[in-house]
Design a protein that fits this description.
about 200 residues, alpha+beta, NADH Oxidase, 7 helices
């Protein structure tokens, strides 16, 4: 693993959380169908409001070049530049209405995020990496895949094995080489009033 990507922790967490990161450089290496099934099984068991499980994934691998190019075309061009190297691409979508009563599901995007987080952690277990991206073309995805109106294409996912960033275009290479950083807890864990750090972390 790139030593720049080891999380520098202020408090102990599970090692998988510290190892997970989102590379731009992906190796030209096949991901087995069995491993992919494990990723989506992890997403399957994510929590969701009322157990609605609103997430849906469209997936394409380089074993089917036409389908891979089709899905790649649903990403914005700057993401296509690096994501085309990944052996697997997916689109994360979510149903915006509850199936049981057709009322709006305010947790739909949140729950897709939970499913994709579970998928990403399972990938880390298997030595794989997932780079999620908001830069997609939702209207093109709807047109190409017949996505219904009550379902929102939200994210793209590049899945595979991390590679050295040597072949990345300038700009992306620097991002892969840069150390990871995060805001301190006091900037987002509040107590008493908005913006005031909780005594737990302040």
């Amino acid at each position: 693993m790139n030593p720049n990507k080891e999380a520098i922790l202020d408090h102990p967490i599970h090692e998988l959380l510290g190892k997970r990161w989102s590379p731009y450089a992906f190796a030209d290496r096949h991901v087995s169908d069995a491993d992919l099934r494990s990723l989506f099984e992890a997403a399957r068991w994510a929590p969701s409001s009322y157990n609605e499980q609103p997430w849906r994934y469209i997936v394409a691998t380089k074993s089917n070049p036409a389908e891979f190019e089709r899905l790649l075309s649903c990403l914005v061009e700057p993401n296509q530049v690096w994501a085309k190297a990944a052996p697997v691409l997916a689109l994360g979508c979510t149903c915006l209405q509850f199936a049981r009563n057709q009322k709006p599901n305010a947790a739909a995007i949140h729950d897709l995020g939970l499913a994709s987080a579970s998928l990403s952690l399972q990938a880390t277990v298997l030595g794989l990496f997932v780079h999620q991206m908001i830069g997609i073309l939702p209207d093109r995805a709807r047109e190409l895949y017949g996505i219904p109106e009550d379902t929102q294409p939200v994210t793209g996912l590049a899945i595979g094995y991390a590679d050295t960033p040597d072949k990345l275009p300038e700009g992306y290479r620097e991002r892969d080489l840069a150390p990871r950083s995060r805001k301190p807890l006091a900037e987002f864990v509040f107590g008493g009033q908005w913006g005031a750090a909780s005594n737990l972390v302040g």
